[in-house]
Amino acid sequence: MKIVECVPNFSEGRDHKILDAIADAIRSVKGVTLLDVDPGADTNRTVVTFVGDPESVVEGAFQAIKKAAELIDMSKHSGAHPRMGATDVCPFVPVSDITMEECVQLAHKLGKRVGEELGIPVYLYEYAATKPEWRNLAEVRKGEYEALPEKMKDPVWKPDYGPQKFNVRSGATAISAREFLIAYNINLNTRDKKKAHDLALMIREKGRLKRDRKSNVVTDEEGSRIREPGFFKHCKAVGWYIDEYRRAQISINLTNYKITPPHLVLEKIRELAMQKGIQVTGSELVGLIPKAAIIAAGKYYLNRLGECSGIPEKMIIETAIQSMGLDDLVPFATNEKIIEYAIRNKNNLVNLPVEDFAAELSSDSPAPGGGSVAALCAVLSGALSAMVANLTFGKKNYEKVWQEANQIAEQGQEIQKKALELIDKDTEAFNKMMEASRLPKQTPEQQEEREQIMESATKAAVMVPLATLQSAGEAVDLAARISMIGNSNALSDAGVAAINANAAAKSAYLNIKINMSGIKDEKFKFEIMTRVEEMLDHINNTALNVENQIKEKI
Description:
Helix content is 51%, strand content 14%. With 554 residues, it is α+β, with helices and mostly antiparallel strands. Strand 11 and strand 12 (247-254) form a beta hairpin. The radius of gyration is 28 Å and the shape is globular.
């Protein structure tokens, strides 16, 4: 599932009625989850955080900017933080299954709409910048709100979107795409702030001033002070003492966790601290973290332990929590701290106990139905192959295939994860078809519109079981691989994995076939059915081969 975070900053931190109205505007958008509203009275600025699918997040951002334009008057604003607009900045952040380039396109889409519909000058910065000098937000915001009247007269400052005209009330807005920021603290067994800060200077990108043996700052030939860079890029850090915890901490902001992940910073601090006789007692996550970051940490520690990393996601996360000491100060609330867990729909079918899912399936409601069951069969196939691989990894007499078994286990978990999403997507696609079928059709215009929407909804309903069929293909190939190298005591499970993959494929095929009758686009039907027939033959033949081979071995 594609998940985007949006973190708009509004030039209001004191009037909570205004902030509540902006928050309500965001909450009104379906598909968006509001995570945090953090006002600052001294800065007179509020940072809002919300997440959701790309289209919903863009809509939520627009509604928030629109409401801020209605309620915030920049001509009367003052505060300690630099600012140039009612909505000062609005960055999009890729969280899950979405690229930075896609977030850049979201920034353009929002900027165009804000400029055209609200008449607010929009400047794109950071990854979305259209000029090299505008990558730096400070350069875009130079002179702040008070400089805008003159900027609007200068062709150099022509905005990316919106009129080059001073908007007295709303100012200008900077929109961007940027990496996710992880706020992360490392706990030490000392109260000495200086010791914590010394370690912070060693790891942060900016580093520290270089000094000679007499502690004098070293300068170059031009008299500029020389700095010794720290160990990590995209890392900002300071040391401080927290009275509440009665210990010193290293407070860290990681501005690109894909390059500098928290677990590698922690391990370097552990190494440096030990050299100074300091003990790291654990660490603390401030705010939320993308699932990918904590999964990467868990796999890192599993690899160090020499254990298989193709285990269930929750077990990988538990390994990360324990290894990083994330529950050192307070219990680590997985469902609140990991973005994907915090926003997931708790009413989804995949969250139901098996008994409740079966009960819902057996009711007179047409959904969930065969499409969801097809996806469930693919889930079970991937899970079984992962299980056989886990029963092979680390076992005596299978040393030569440990590495491949680990890969198969990881791939089985991925198949399981993708297919789980399809259980609910199939039901959602069916419900959209039903909504389309209920559209009015009294007039020729209504009939034409209804037909177009029905065609689109039916095509979308075909694409879900097609994705299930693709997952079944991956699952049957995985079952075939593990049946050749897996633990002989679990061969029957590899066979069941292949059979379930075949069941998923045949079930998905029937769902595709029945929906094709409602589609008029003959080219679409021919291309899809040609692919489907080929995939089904491959899956069926592979599954039967695996089943027959295992029958001969056991």
